[in-house]
Every structure is written in C-alpha cells, then in structure tokens.
Design a protein that fits this description.
Organism: Hungatella effluvii
Mean pLDDT: 88
GO molecular function, one term: DNA-binding transcription factor activity
Order of helices and strands: HHHHHHHHH
Number of domains: 2
Number of helices: 9
Low-confidence stretches: none
Shape: elongated
Distance between the termini: 42 Å
Helix content: 55-70%
Largest sheet: none
Radius of gyration: 33 Å
Protein name: RNA polymerase sigma-70 factor (ECF subfamily)
Length: 179
C-alpha cells in the first residue's frame, strides 16, 4: 500500500473545517456512509493536501477540487468491483454447472477405507523393494508411534543415524509418489 505523508497541522485544521463535504457528497450520491465513507475520505484528504500545496488549484473552490477527487475515487471503486476477478463464476459442489451433467459432488469418489488401506499396503510393498530391511523396520516403528530416540535405542544405533535413514526413506517415497 502506498504510504502517504501525514497532514500538517494547518492541513488537518482545514480538513476538519470542510469535513462536511464528505457527508454532502455521500448524501447527494445517495450512498451509504457505512459502506462508502472509506472509499471517498482518503480522496478528500488528498484533495486537502493538494489544494493547500499547489497554487494553481487556488483558482477553483476547494469544494470543486474535493468533489472531483471523491468522484474519481468512487469511479475507481466501481471499476475495480466490475473487474473480471470479481465476476468469476462460482460453482457449488451441489449444483449442475451445465444441463444434463453431474454435480461436482457426484464426480468426486467417496472415501473408501478399504481402498486407502490397500493403497498404503501397496506403497509399503513398493517401498520395501527399494530400501534396506533396517529402514523398513524403522518405518514400521515410526508408524507405530515411536520417536527417533526410542527407535535408535531399539536398533542399537544413534538418533542421527536413524534420522539419516529416514531422510533416505522420504526421498525414495517422494520418488515413488511423484517420480
């Protein structure tokens, strides 16, 4: 977000004196204060700074400058709301996107615990072909909830060695899954 220089005391006093313009603008445009105050107030404050620092603007009334700035801010707000990113098609899992089609919910298979168990067993079977017997024992202990220190004690090795073996197992697993 663009950082702005704070108003000087003179600019703050001027902004306070003419702040009613913001409410007149919103009322004239029939806009909700709750919804649109933040949209226009920053443009109003920029117009205060510009009016008091740019001598060329003195030929106009401050109300004209402020009104024009707030109009611009409002226009930019509406334009950003109409941008393509705000008008994306939203699909529900429960509705048909096209006539005579399935809902998205119907195209997603229901979780099947037996299939998941089979997939896990097949993955472990493939893993066992590619790692050492010691690594598979470590994997089995890890799946049973043992921590690295307990595994190292049961395997008569160091924690660092267990972690190195597990790192190699992870690499092989990633290769199996994504390779």
């Amino acid at each position: 977000m663009k950082s702005e220089i704070p108003l000087t005391p003179e600019q703050r006093l001027f902004a306070e004196e003419h702040h009613g313009l913001v409410y007149k603008f919103l009322q004239k445009k029939q806009l909700s204060i709750d919804e649109f105050y933040d949209v226009v107030v920053f443009a109003y404050l920029r117009s205060v700074r510009r009016f008091l620092t740019e001598p060329a603007l003195k030929q106009y009334s401050f109300a004209t400058i402020a009104w024009s700035s707030m109009n611009c801010a409002l226009h930019n707000y509406y334009r950003s709301q109409k941008a393509q990113k705000h008008n994306a098609l939203v699909l529900s899992l429960h509705t048909n996107p096209y006539e005579d089609s399935y809902t998205l919910e119907e195209t997603i298979p229901a979780p099947n615990p037996y299939m998941r168990q089979l997939e896990e067993q097949l993955l472990l079977h493939d893993l066992a072909k590619r790692v050492s017997k010691q690594q598979m024992n470590i994997v089995r202990m890890k799946t049973c909830g043992y921590n690295d220190r307990d595994i190292a004690r049961r395997q008569n090795t160091t924690t660092e060695h267990v972690q190195m073996l597990l790192k190699e197992v992870r690499r092989v697993l990633l290769d199996l899954c994504y390779g």
